Structures are given as structure tokens and as C-alpha cells.
């Protein structure tokens, strides 16, 4: 009999699946820092490649904190309206009595989505000295007076132009002011390695430079295996899957968070359609790779400069690790040139050292993607 349950896996970007393997090595520290507004983790910057689980980590933290009556948590993605959205969410978190106090202090409050008009000679909250500083610190102060800690989560950090840099600079500087004033506030941000690197290089935001830095490595394979065996135990008992096939499915993920969800999802769905054992895994892998190529690899390659693409494509000639010396020959480039692009791709977390003079891809099936989509391209 085929399965009829709803899949516990959710490979959609931005979603939080029912089967989520927590990053136990970092999550408890982040949650404790958010609840106490103390310790080195209260300001944390999370980076990782596309599909590594950054959004899921922040979403899990959001959901945990939301259940605590003394914790105020807001979560936003990077946008031109980020600072206004933060003010909007902080104001919305005030109690009715605190809103009355703020309203009496300010002549009127006009926030995205609603407007409150209060008669007074004082200026509007959003135009008070025309600074984010005035609004941000005022609201944090009143939320703290409610005996609430405040946690700000910012996902998908992007700093590709001056306006985005200015937004992040303002947020970082005013957050530092709030911390220096003893406000109970914490800040957690997540983004791709290149964008996080730009934030950390910002000279005027030295406070963020001292933040706790977390790079999301692959999930431990033992944790993936344990999770898969738990989810598919009934299928093993019913002879729809063997234990070895479940373990093989886990190994195919290589611990890459997005692929853990993809393979788990399609394996679960194939079982519901009456495909069992080898067939269930075979077609799950085909579907998972299609989604991985479309939602990760193709986007990465679309955003990369040509020379960095050439480097990755040149590596695809090998079935395993690549000798850096071989890349010099394939790309007709000298050692310094190859070393330069090797360093850039390592910073982007798209390749990693694999021994003396060797490199390898970090994201599963990168080689397969290149061979499928660039098989007729000769860049050498």
C-alpha cells in the first residue's frame, strides 16, 4: 500500500520544513544570547552558500523566540525599505499603554501600513530629526521598559551598491548606540559570503566587525542519516525501502541542507506514488538534481564573472579533485592568475582546498551541472 501522509520535507526556499536538522553547534548559543541580550553571540553574522540553510536557521530562531512572552523578535529581508520596516515592526510590538506614551511624545506616527494622528506640537516620529537613530532608540527603550528583550533578524543581506551599504551602515551604527546605552537588544544577520565580507570590511561599522561569525558548513552526515531513518522507519518496516537505500539517500545529500530537503521530499513523494526501493531513490535523485541545477547552480553561474566561471568549468574535466597545476594548462594562465581566482572562489565558498595543490567543489553535483549545461563550451 502506498503512503498517504503529507511530506515532512519542504525544499522551498524560505520555508521551514517539519523535518529540520538543527545546527546544534550554534543554535543554543544564538537563542540564549537573544533571550538574555548578553554574551558574544548577541551580535551574530551568519554566512553560507546558497541553499546552506541560512534562512531556515533564522526562521527557527524566530519561531523559538516568538513563543517567549518576554521576547520581542522581528524578522525582515534586505530591501530599500528595511529601516522603515524595522521601525514599523518595533512600533507594532509595543503594548497599548506604551503606544499611548509614544503617541503623546510625537505629533503623529506614520508607518508603512497605518497612520496615527495625535495632536501635539512635537514632530512626527518618522521625521524627528530625520534620522533612524531617533526612532530606533526610542522604540527599543520603550520595549525594554515592558521588560522585553528585542531581537532583530535580517535575512538575505545584500550590499552591492552605495544605497544598500548606507542602509546597513545606519543599522549597524544605531544598533551599536543602543547597545552602548545598555539596551536589551540583539542582532542576527545572514547572507551570502561575498555580501557578508563587504559588511565586515565597512570601516565605519567596526562594531559589526567584532560580531560572532558563523559559516554554515554541511550538516553532519550522521545527523542526516539519523533523520532519514526516523522519517522512513515505517517504510523500512513495510518493505517499501531497505535500510541501505535510506542510508544511501542520506549520503547522496553530502550534508548540503537544500539537498537534504530535496532528496527527502522526492523520495517521500515517490513512495506515495507507488515507487519503492531502488526506483524510488533513482527518480528522487533525478528530480532533486533538476531542482538543484535550476535553483542553485544556474543562479550561481549567472551571477559569477566570466573568469570565475571558466575556472569552475575547467575543474569539471576531472572526476574528483583538481590539480591547480592542471588548471594553468587548461586555462593557458600563469600560477599567479590561477591563484588569484582560486582565492576568490574559496572566499565565495564555491571551492575548497583538498590537499596540497588540489581543489574541489563544495556544492554537490556542481560537476554534473557543468557537464550537462556546458558540455559544448570550450573556454581554454
From TrEMBL:
InterPro entries: AAA_22, P-loop_NTPase. Residues 44-200 form the ORC1/DEAH AAA+ ATPase domain. GO terms for molecular function: ATP hydrolysis activity. This is ORC1/DEAH AAA+ ATPase domain-containing protein.
Amino acid at each position: 500500500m502506498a503512503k498517504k501522509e503529507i511530506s515532512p520535507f519542504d525544499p522551498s526556499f524560505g520555508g521551514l520544513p517539519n523535518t529540520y536538522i538543527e545546527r546544534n553547534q550554534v543554535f543554543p548559543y544564538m537563542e540564549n544570547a537573544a533571550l538574555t541580550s548578553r554574551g558574544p553571540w548577541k551580535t551574530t553574522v551568519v554566512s553560507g552558500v546558497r541553499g546552506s540553510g541560512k534562512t531556515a536557521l533564522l526562521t527557527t530562531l524566530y519561531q523559538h523566540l516568538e513563543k517567549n512572552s518576554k521576547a520581542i523578535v522581528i524578522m525582515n529581508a534586505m530591501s530599500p525599505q528595511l529601516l522603515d520596516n524595522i521601525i514599523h515592526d518595533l512600533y507594532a510590538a509595543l503594548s497599548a499603554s506604551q503606544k499611548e506614551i509614544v503617541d503623546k511624545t510625537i505629533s503623529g506616527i506614520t508607518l508603512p501600513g497605518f497612520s496615527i494622528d495625535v495632536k501635539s506640537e512635537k514632530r512626527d516620529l518618522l521625521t524627528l530629526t530625520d534620522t533612524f537613530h531617533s526612532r530606533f532608540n526610542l522604540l527599543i527603550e520603550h520595549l525594554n521598559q515592558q521588560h522585553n528583550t528585542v531581537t532583530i533578524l535580517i535575512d538575505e543581506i545584500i550590499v552591492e551598491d552605495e544605497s544598500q551599504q548606507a542602509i546597513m551602515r545606519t543599522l549597524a551604527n544605531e544598533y551599536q548606540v543602543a547597545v552602548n546605552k545598555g539596551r536589551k537588544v540583539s542582532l542576527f544577520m545572514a547572507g551570502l559570503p561575498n555580501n557578508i565580507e563587504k559588511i565586515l570590511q565597512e570601516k565605519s561599522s567596526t562594531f559589526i566587525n567584532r560580531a560572532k561569525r558563523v559559516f554554515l558548513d554541511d550538516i553532519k552526515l550522521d545527523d542526516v542519516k539519523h533523520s532519514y531513518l526516523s522519517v522512513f522507519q515505517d517504510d523500512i518496516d513495510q518493505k517499501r525501502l531497505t535500510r541501505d537505500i535510506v542510508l544511501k539517500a542520506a549520503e547522496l545529500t553530502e550534508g548540503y541542507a537544500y539537498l537534504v530537503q530535496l532528496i527527502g521530499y522526492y523520495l517521500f513523494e515517490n513512495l506515495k506514488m507507488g515507487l519503492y526501493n531502488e526506483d524510488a531513490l533513482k527518480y528522487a535523485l533525478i528530480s532533486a538534481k533538476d531542482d538543484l541545477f535550476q535553483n542553485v547552480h544556474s543562479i550561481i553561474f549567472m551571477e559569477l564573472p566570466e573568469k570565475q566561471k571558466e575556472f569552475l568549468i575547467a575543474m569539471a574535466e576531472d572526476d574528483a579533485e583538481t590539480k591547480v597545476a592542471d588548471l594553468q594548462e587548461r586555462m593557458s594562465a600563469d600560477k599567479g592568475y590561477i591563484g588569484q581566482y582560486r582565492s576568490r572562489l574559496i572566499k565565495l565558498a564555491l571551492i575548497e582546498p583538498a590537499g596540497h595543490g588540489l581543489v574541489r567543489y563544495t556544492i554537490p553535483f556542481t560537476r554534473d551541472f557543468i557537464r550537462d549545461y556546458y558540455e559544448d563550451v570550450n573556454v581554454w
